Amino acid sequence: MKVYKFGGASVKDAQSVRNVLTVLSSQGFEECLLVVSAMGKTTNALEKVVEIYFKNENPQAALREVKQMHKEIAESLFPQGHSVFDEISLFFDDIESFLRRNKSPNYNFVYDQVVACGELISSKILSEFLTLEGLTNQWLDARDFIKTDATYREGQVDWGETEKKIASLDRNKSYVTQGFIGSDDNNFTVTLGREGSDYSAAIFAYCLEAEAMTIWKDVPGVMTGDPRKFSGVKLLKHISYEEAIEMAYYGASVIHPKTLQPLKQKNIPFFVKSFLSPQEPGTKVGISEQNEYTESYILKEGQVLMRISTKDFSFIAEEHLSLIFTALAKFRIKISLMQNSAISLALCLEDKYQNIENLRNELCGNFAVEITKEVSLYTIRNADVKDLDRLYSGKKVLLEQLSKNTVQMVIQ
């Protein structure tokens, strides 16, 4: 069985949905499971709905805009009176009903119940359109198959339960389902982290023991740098799982960080290809004698540089590190880069949930804390360390770290 993942850009409008049909017609849709993201910027729009709701304002107008966008896309794809229009209305009725009845003050819980509807609606539209065009498929609710704990907005997969559920699928059929979402023991929706649809595809691929997994993007494959940020980048045709994991960890946006581990465990080949040019080979990630180790550039923006030092000039010891890491875990702040000296610790942090000030307040009782916001982590993989001046040229470097094959710098 094959697993394909189509992201938001690939289903952003009616023409894009038709292009998915073109891709599937050329690549084959037999014994295939499609994982679909929300359409275009729907996730951002539904996030706004949640923000308005928590300001005790009426989110109806914002919700109507999202509904109208999906209705217009459906009107371009389906004949008048098709059942998909009622399905779309039901999804939005569910959001409105939930927001009316909700008593939970937990922002992350409410976020997951509302924002997940983007994937449900887009996958329903795509499934019905493929059926209309003669590609038989079954629509699945991913929440019935991917089971997680109750860590809302970043659910941890219960692999035992998830494998049991997915094993029940008939591998001779074709399916359309959602990325990004699962459910907890109480069947509440839990999302898997922003941009988590790639991870969903990998979960299904692992549990189905898929012959291959392909992510369809608006780029030719994995490049030596984001073409929107770097000039002269090239396509990497073959890279190892390990290299892809490193690139994802350092912030390469084309691959979700959690995607590779499940695939590597079962040696499932992973392709990144362009939905604009589906016949092109793209990038193959896996075991190969042709793996490329070319100098590559990754820019992870919107980071925070935090410098922590002891107030009495004592060494940063194990008990200090324990306090710091406990606070980081408490506020769900991730470390992108860490460097320590005798009396200080420098951390480049990803503050996804805007908790950096809470972290500062937590640490200030025991440490001197200095923060620099809106910095970027610039990583060069397989760097030519004999020519470092070229890499540093024109940059204000706040922190740097060099290893055998990797140069990293925090820059403003």
Give me the secondary-structure category. alpha/beta
Hey, roughly how much beta strand do the residues contain? 15-25%
Q: Note the quaternary state here.
A: single chain
How can the largest sheet be summarized?
Answer: 8 strands, mixed
Mean pLDDT: 94
SS field, number of helical segments: 13
**DSSP strand tally:** 16
> Order of strands side by side in the largest beta sheet?
3-4-2-1-7-9-10-8
Order of helices and strands: EHEHHHHHEHEEEHEEHHEEEHEEHEHEE
Would you mind describing this structure in some detail?
- With 412 residues, the chain is α/β, with parallel strands linked by helices.
- The strands form 3 sheets. An 8-stranded mixed beta sheet has the order 3-4-2-1-7-9-10-8. Strands 12-13-11-14-16-15 form a 6-stranded antiparallel beta sheet.
- Helices cover 37% and strands 23% of the residues.
- It is globular.
- The mean pLDDT is 94.
- It has helices at residues 14-27, 42-54, 60-77, 84-101, 107-115, 117-132, 159-167, 197-208, 241-250, 260-265, 318-330, 356-364, 388-392; strands at 2-6, 32-36, 138-139, 175-178, 181-183, 189-191, 212-217, 238-239, 270-274, 283-285, 296-310, 334-340, 344-350, 367-381, 397-402, 406-411.
- It is built from 13 helices and 16 strands.
- Strand 15 and strand 16 form a beta hairpin.
- Helix 2 (42-54) runs antiparallel to helix 3, helix 3 (60-77) runs antiparallel to helix 4 and helix 4 (84-101) runs antiparallel to helix 6.
